[in-house]
Amino acid sequence: MKTRAKKRYGQHFLEPAWADKLVAAIAPGPGDRFLEVGPGPGVLTLRLASKAAHVTAVEIDRAMIDTLEPKRPPNVTLLHADVLHVDLAELAGGQPLRVAGNLPYNISSPVLFALIEAFKQGASVTDATVMVQREVAERILAGPGGREYGVLSILIRLHADVRQVRVLPPGAFRPPPKVQSAVIQLRFRPPTVRVPDPPLFEAMVRSMFTQRRKTLANALRGFAGDRGTDPAAALSAAAIDPRRRPETLQLIELARLAESFPSR
User: N or C: which end of the chain has fewer CB within 10 A?
Assistant: First the structure.
């Protein structure tokens, strides 16, 4: 009997032929330890387990755990939990941890932010190869000047190098989603620009991109006001034209601008 996908969990199960292609892109080694997000019936889990040292598969759906348990290899640990509530640093245990998974569309951005946060807090997460909605992949990969460029691309690419591995058609899954998907790979690394106050930087980016079509002088007004700072003065200190728009700023310019605001 086929495993039924549950809409409330955003489940779309990867077909075996496409799982083989994904494993080839991941290139697991015999000493690798993996965290798999949302294993479902285990089509990717079993392939990773056959090539890696260990896989911890985190699954929110109890029925999927029950489906996978009878065929679980000894080097697979099944964890019935919401990945957004899992302590990733504790799971890594100080050892290098690779991440893979077919992310449910409704939590793909929160999961990626959770991985970034875990890396920032010292978890030894080395890379993540995940399937996301193609639109999300485009936002992550976008550079300055494009309409897709924003919070997601900035905060992820501050801490990771990102590449798109391949685009997946709806037929790569069952049931087929109504949109295309993409496989992206993140390789975590220290920031390439100096950001002395990461929480301030993130708050500034999130605030200004809620008004991305306004000039910087106006888009920064709320954030600057909360800190008792004049946006024009901050922009002048950072040597940035106040007539520009948020989506035109390079990462190094955003970092310089954040240093113009006082920390709390």
Answer: N
Query: Which pLDDT tens digit goes with each residue over 166-203?
Result: 999 998 888 787 889 999 999 999 999 999 999 999 99
Place 6 in a pLDDT band, splitting at 50, 70 and 90.
very low
Quick check: 131 pLDDT over 70? Answer: yes
Q: How far is CA 149 from CA 110, 142, 227, 252, in A?
A: 17, 5, 26, 15
The helix (run of H) or strand (run of E) holding residue 231 is helix 231-237
Looking at the structure, tell me whether residues 104 and 172 fall in a common domain.
yes
Do 43 and 170 lie in one domain? The reply is yes
Q: Hey, how many other C-beta atoms are within 10 angstroms of the C-beta on 2?
A: 7
Q: What is the CATH number of the domain that holds 158?
A: 3.40.50.150
Asked whether residue 1 is assigned to any structural domain, the reply reads no
HSE toward the beta carbon, residue 86, CA cutoff 13 A: 23
Shortest CA distance to 181 belongs to which of 216, 113, 129?
Answer: 129
Residue 49 lies in a domain: yes
For residue range 205-217, list pLDDT tens digits in order.
999 999 999 999 9
Contact predicate 116/159, CB 8 Å? yes
Do 26 and 81 belong together in one domain? yes
Instruction: Tell me: do 117 and 78 sit in the same domain.
Output: yes
Burial (CB < 10 A; 0-12, 13-18, 19+), residue 237, is middle
Torsion of CA 97, 98, 100, 106, to 10 degrees: 60
For helices 251-258 and 198-208, angle between their N-to-C axes, nearest 10 degrees: 110
My answer on whether 126 and 203 are in the same domain is no
